Amino acid sequence: MGRGALILVEGLDRAGKTTQTSELVTRLRNEGLNVELIKFPDRTTPIGKLINSYLVDKSFELSDESAHLLFSANRWELSRGIKEKLHNGTIVVLDRYVYSGVAYTAAKGLDAQWCLNPDIGLPRPDLTIFLNLNDSQSSRGGFGDERYEVTEFQQQVKLQFEKFFNEPNWNTLVVDGKNIQDVAEEVWPLVQEVLSKDLKQVELF
Ligand code: FDM
Ligand code: MG
């Protein structure tokens, strides 16, 4: 048996990442495959708890740099487990990852290469699906009240994500006006294609 595929679903807040990753995991399990879903930030780890405080409590002060490094550290906390799962033949589906890390901090004005540096060496996805919302206001419900859930900031984040649109293994899917099943039907062939490949060793950022 070959290794499992690393499949990432990225996008802005309210794009439907969490819905689509859970649909995808269900579908893969129905095919009899071993699948694990990991959502970043993982708010349950010690570092994830700090990140959660930072996101929900706007009076919780951290410099932009240190907040950024916590998000990266949260990925490093789980990276060994991700590699082990892939080697054991488990498909790992990620809800956000390195690209969110860079896009959200670079949107604050920090240098994008500086933002990527702490993530260098993390496993690289075999497939990235970016759920693209062209009009974040009209098609979806409103934002919650976490840090970053602000329309103007989301627009800056989107500009940062767009810089990745030519990354290897990247696919942009427009989701405006589509229902859950429509989007799932577009996700599925992309996933099947990567599963049909004989994946060699895990690539790294
Ligand atoms: N976020 C997420 C970052 O700023 N950096 C990161 O590395 C990651 C993974 O955290 F606003 C932001 C994106 C979002 C917030 O994410 C919480 P969820 O998906 O809404 O839980
Ligand atoms: Mg959110």
From TrEMBL:
<dbReference type="GO" id="GO:0005634">
    <property type="term" value="C:nucleus"/>
</dbReference>
<dbReference type="InterPro" id="IPR027417">
    <property type="entry name" value="P-loop_NTPase"/>
</dbReference>
<keyword id="KW-0808">Transferase</keyword>
<dbReference type="InterPro" id="IPR018094">
    <property type="entry name" value="Thymidylate_kinase"/>
</dbReference>
<dbReference type="GO" id="GO:0006227">
    <property type="term" value="P:dUDP biosynthetic process"/>
</dbReference>
<keyword id="KW-0547">Nucleotide-binding</keyword>
<dbReference type="InterPro" id="IPR039430">
    <property type="entry name" value="Thymidylate_kin-like_dom"/>
</dbReference>
<dbReference type="GO" id="GO:0006233">
    <property type="term" value="P:dTDP biosynthetic process"/>
</dbReference>
<keyword id="KW-0418">Kinase</keyword>
<dbReference type="GO" id="GO:0006235">
    <property type="term" value="P:dTTP biosynthetic process"/>
</dbReference>
<dbReference type="GO" id="GO:0004798">
    <property type="term" value="F:dTMP kinase activity"/>
</dbReference>
<keyword id="KW-0067">ATP-binding</keyword>
<protein>
    <recommendedName>
        <fullName>Thymidylate kinase</fullName>
        <ecNumber>2.7.4.9</ecNumber>
    </recommendedName>
</protein>
<dbReference type="Pfam" id="PF02223">
    <property type="entry name" value="Thymidylate_kin"/>
</dbReference>
<dbReference type="GO" id="GO:0005829">
    <property type="term" value="C:cytosol"/>
</dbReference>
<feature type="domain" description="Thymidylate kinase-like">
    <location>
        <begin position="9"/>
        <end position="186"/>
    </location>
</feature>
<dbReference type="GO" id="GO:0005524">
    <property type="term" value="F:ATP binding"/>
</dbReference>
<comment type="similarity">
    <text>Belongs to the thymidylate kinase family.</text>
</comment>
<dbReference type="GO" id="GO:0004550">
    <property type="term" value="F:nucleoside diphosphate kinase activity"/>
</dbReference>
<comment type="pathway">
    <text>Pyrimidine metabolism; dTTP biosynthesis.</text>
</comment>
<keyword id="KW-0545">Nucleotide biosynthesis</keyword>
<dbReference type="InterPro" id="IPR018095">
    <property type="entry name" value="Thymidylate_kin_CS"/>
</dbReference>
